[in-house]
């Protein structure tokens, strides 16, 4: 399901009673909801879960937890409490698999400085796991995906290509070292990136997940009523991603992203393989940060000092609002 399909579904949800304390709700396709408690504290709330994408149960728990926590970081928040969401075929799979998933998630939650307070499980035919996360943010420091300004530079904090790489894992096309690299990218928290941008005048932020780099960039462009230009050669991509894509190792979600984005993206001399990579459906990707040109290099340097592999990949323009150009 792409953003256009999701919008059609969400349109049928009843509108919430107007509340001035609801700072971020359903209207802007943002990463999490934000509700103001007082002049100093707002709640950030999110949840996410999915089926296993790697064979290692412990690492799956780590990745699922990092993915769920990321939405709070994308809003500029600090995770406080989490609750597990579990679907598991308890009568047909070894219970140790579930124990390892939970252990992986628990360790990642501790790394984030958050606390596990409970959860809910159901007996399901297929394993599913994720987290509901609650965090806090200062009401005046919320990093929504709607505030990008003309002239801003866009910074990405993790390489893309994860969807193609995980598809390759299923087809046994990656070495053990390549699998480890991909898993570590997904399991890495966006905590350091969020802490780094807290000291800068960040105008907008989102995390890159299932709708791909260009899908989440489009949401930022639309929400901010700006155009955005992405420079393909500046986008960090995991090793061998293009080679794998040329072999046809492309997830269905990536193809769907490419299809529904077609009318809103202008590809300037970019071949279809690179288009698909830029649309690749990501799990637990990096933050996409919109910051002024004057502060962009300094923020990238700060991110790198915190061992975040960040790069400037594009800019916000006043041309073609709500559209993206890739060069």
TrEMBL record:
<feature type="domain" description="PurM-like N-terminal">
    <location>
        <begin position="30"/>
        <end position="137"/>
    </location>
</feature>
<dbReference type="GO" id="GO:0016260">
    <property type="term" value="P:selenocysteine biosynthetic process"/>
</dbReference>
<dbReference type="InterPro" id="IPR016188">
    <property type="entry name" value="PurM-like_N"/>
</dbReference>
<keyword id="KW-0460">Magnesium</keyword>
<dbReference type="InterPro" id="IPR010918">
    <property type="entry name" value="PurM-like_C_dom"/>
</dbReference>
<comment type="similarity">
    <text>Belongs to the selenophosphate synthase 1 family. Class I subfamily.</text>
</comment>
<dbReference type="InterPro" id="IPR036921">
    <property type="entry name" value="PurM-like_N_sf"/>
</dbReference>
<feature type="binding site">
    <location>
        <begin position="119"/>
        <end position="121"/>
    </location>
    <ligand>
        <name>ATP</name>
    </ligand>
</feature>
<keyword id="KW-0547">Nucleotide-binding</keyword>
<feature type="binding site">
    <location>
        <position position="31"/>
    </location>
    <ligand>
        <name>Mg(2+)</name>
    </ligand>
</feature>
<dbReference type="Pfam" id="PF00586">
    <property type="entry name" value="AIRS"/>
</dbReference>
<protein>
    <recommendedName>
        <fullName>Selenide, water dikinase</fullName>
        <ecNumber>2.7.9.3</ecNumber>
    </recommendedName>
</protein>
<dbReference type="InterPro" id="IPR004536">
    <property type="entry name" value="SPS/SelD"/>
</dbReference>
<feature type="binding site" description="in other chain">
    <location>
        <position position="48"/>
    </location>
    <ligand>
        <name>ATP</name>
    </ligand>
</feature>
<keyword id="KW-0418">Kinase</keyword>
<keyword id="KW-0479">Metal-binding</keyword>
<feature type="binding site" description="in other chain">
    <location>
        <begin position="28"/>
        <end position="30"/>
    </location>
    <ligand>
        <name>ATP</name>
    </ligand>
</feature>
<keyword id="KW-0067">ATP-binding</keyword>
<dbReference type="Pfam" id="PF02769">
    <property type="entry name" value="AIRS_C"/>
</dbReference>
<dbReference type="GO" id="GO:0004756">
    <property type="term" value="F:selenide, water dikinase activity"/>
</dbReference>
<dbReference type="GO" id="GO:0005524">
    <property type="term" value="F:ATP binding"/>
</dbReference>
<comment type="subunit">
    <text>Homodimer.</text>
</comment>
<comment type="function">
    <text>Synthesizes selenophosphate from selenide and ATP.</text>
</comment>
<dbReference type="GO" id="GO:0000287">
    <property type="term" value="F:magnesium ion binding"/>
</dbReference>
<feature type="domain" description="PurM-like C-terminal">
    <location>
        <begin position="150"/>
        <end position="325"/>
    </location>
</feature>
<feature type="binding site" description="in other chain">
    <location>
        <position position="71"/>
    </location>
    <ligand>
        <name>ATP</name>
    </ligand>
</feature>
<feature type="binding site">
    <location>
        <position position="71"/>
    </location>
    <ligand>
        <name>Mg(2+)</name>
    </ligand>
</feature>
<dbReference type="InterPro" id="IPR023061">
    <property type="entry name" value="SelD_I"/>
</dbReference>
<keyword id="KW-0711">Selenium</keyword>
<dbReference type="InterPro" id="IPR036676">
    <property type="entry name" value="PurM-like_C_sf"/>
</dbReference>
<dbReference type="GO" id="GO:0005737">
    <property type="term" value="C:cytoplasm"/>
</dbReference>
<feature type="binding site">
    <location>
        <position position="207"/>
    </location>
    <ligand>
        <name>Mg(2+)</name>
    </ligand>
</feature>
<keyword id="KW-0808">Transferase</keyword>
């Amino acid at each position: 399901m792409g953003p256009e399909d999701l919008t059609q579904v969400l349109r049928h949800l009843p509108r919430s009673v107007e509340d001035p304390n609801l700072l971020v709700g359903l209207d802007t396709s943002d990463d999490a909801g934000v509700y103001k408690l007082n002049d100093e504290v707002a709640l950030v709330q999110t949840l996410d879960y999915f089926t296993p994408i790697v064979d290692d149960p412990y690492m799956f728990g780590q990745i699922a937890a990092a993915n769920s926590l990321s939405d709070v970081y994308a809003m500029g928040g600090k995770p406080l409490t989490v609750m597990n969401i579990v679907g598991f075929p308890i009568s047909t799979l070894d219970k140790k698999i579930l124990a390892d998933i939970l252990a992986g998630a628990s360790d990642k939650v501790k790394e984030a400085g958050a606390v596990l307070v409970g959860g809910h499980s159901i007996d399901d035919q297929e394993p599913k796991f994720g987290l509901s996360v609650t965090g806090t943010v200062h009401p005046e420091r919320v990093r929504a995906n709607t505030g990008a300004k003309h002239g801003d530079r866009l910074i990405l904090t993790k390489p893309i290509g994860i969807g193609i790489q995980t598809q390759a894992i299923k087809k046994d096309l990656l070495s053990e070292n390549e699998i480890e690299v991909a898993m570590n990218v997904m399991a890495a928290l966006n905590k350091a990136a969020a802490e780094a941008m807290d000291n800068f005048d960040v105008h907008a932020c989102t995390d890159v997940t299932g709708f791909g780099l260009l899908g989440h960039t489009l949401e930022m462009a639309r929400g901010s009523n700006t155009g955005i230009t992405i420079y393909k050669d500046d986008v960090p991509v995991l090793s061998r991603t293009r080679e794998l894509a040329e072999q046809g190792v492309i997830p269905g979600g990536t193809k769907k992203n490419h299809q529904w984005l077609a009318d809103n993206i202008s590809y300037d001399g970019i071949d279809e393989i690179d288009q698909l990579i830029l649309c690749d459906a990501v799990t637990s990707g990096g933050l996409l940060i919109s910051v002024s040109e004057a502060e962009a290099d300094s923020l990238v340097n700060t991110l790198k000092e915190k061992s975040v592999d960040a790069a400037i990949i594009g800019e916000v323009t006043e041309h073609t609002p709500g559209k993206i150009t890739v060069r």
